[in-house]
């Protein structure tokens, strides 16, 4: 990795880019994943590259939902594996979730590389790489229709960082609760999900881990109350207002 001075104004952003570049060189990330990151980074600039209170509320609700789930699953693609492999593994352990590789640009080789990468960061098991357990979701028309019958197929709650809209909508149609992490509050993914965390995953996962430890002390009744009091559409609307106010402030400097 290229050495990045800690006092560089874009230090964290440059570190994230370096991680993705390394992931690309290792075969975890595809070229389309690099362009997707650039699109998300543009929205992060508008957010001020900080986690808003609105995102923190969504993180709290998402974590409570996963703690209350019977069969939670975290879906992992190449970008997620490259950026937060340890965070995914640690958070999965905190909420009792399974980890499953699911790719838009599918290849058995890349699935195995991602699974091995997650295992090297502490995962005891990674689903989605064994053909004998493969199932298909007919509502999805991309390669992401392939899921693991022990994981996403059987899940009641699915966390989908960096997701595509088609699969989010299809998972919802199958009766699953979908939690998205998406920097674009206007995307189909963000709009279709039950809970949308509008934040960068490199900031979101550490906060989710801390929140899981905090909420693990709460009763089921307390967690249910947190979940019931959350309105995703209202949260997204307030997020757009927050982003608009940021742009207005920047425009009059």
Automatic annotation (TrEMBL):
Which transformation does this protein catalyse, written as a reaction?
(R)-4-phosphopantoate + beta-alanine + ATP = (R)-4'-phosphopantothenate + AMP + diphosphate + H(+)
The Gene Ontology terms for molecular function here are:
acid-amino acid ligase activity; ATP binding
Instruction: Say which family it is in.
Output: Belongs to the archaeal phosphopantothenate synthetase family.
Name listed for the protein in its UniProt record: 4-phosphopantoate--beta-alanine ligase
Assembly notes: Homodimer.
The organism's place on the tree of life at top rank: Archaea
Protein role = Catalyzes the condensation of (R)-4-phosphopantoate and beta-alanine to 4'-phosphopantothenate in the CoA biosynthesis pathway.
Q: Which Pfam families match?
A: PPS_PS
Record key words, sorted: ATP-binding, Coenzyme A biosynthesis, Ligase, Nucleotide-binding
Write down the top EC class of this protein. ligase
What InterPro entries does the database record attribute to this sequence? PPS/PS, PPS/PS_sf
Could you tell me which NCBIfam families the record lists for this protein?
PRK13761.1 (NF010324)
